[in-house]
What does this fold into?
Amino acid sequence: GGRCLACNWYCYLREGQPGVCGVRGNVNGKGKLLVYGKVYGGLAVDPIEKKPFYHFLPGRTALSYGTMGCNFGCLFCQNWEMSQMVKVRADTGVRPYSKKPEEIVEEAISNGCKSIAYTYNEPAVFVEFAYDTMKLAKKTGIKSVFVSNGYESKESFDLIKDYLDGINIDLKGSSEDFYRKYCRARIEPVLENIERFHKAGVWVEVTTMLIDGVNDSEKDIKWIT
It folds into this structure.
């Protein structure tokens, strides 16, 4: 086995046992991303405001893509068909398309997109695939943005910081208890990464999805803002 460095779980991967995300495994003694080059749900041309980014290339389109798997287990996930499919072992009808990084960048260019958004599921879990795409995108002048839960490892941060132009981090609640109960994760790495990306000069926007009676008290909202 070996330690996975993609995110803050730092999972120890044993042969045949994937990490928390469900898509990073140990194959013949080596760590492997099991969804490299596999785009789930296709490529979509979206207004960047849908990601949501409101202060980064406003009015322009982003080419969106994701894989599957996630290092969180949010009980309120909007994209659970992609993020949790591999964990619940259910056939949600989402099918993969084979796409090389070059093909993704070409599609962004042909659609007049000014950015590529790594989204739908957590991009940290497919960081090598994202990194290879980001490097090519940068050469063509296309920006790269993550829509993320903010659980990147220091190693992933170091890998992508010079190629990532923007990141929208979901700050899902205001307490460790909330994160443990509703997200199956911890809050501290998320707070560290909001600061880390900002200090590195990556454009940071923070989003909170308010859940009625759960994370929407005046105290919660004041703390987050």
Notes: The longest helix spans residues 127-140.
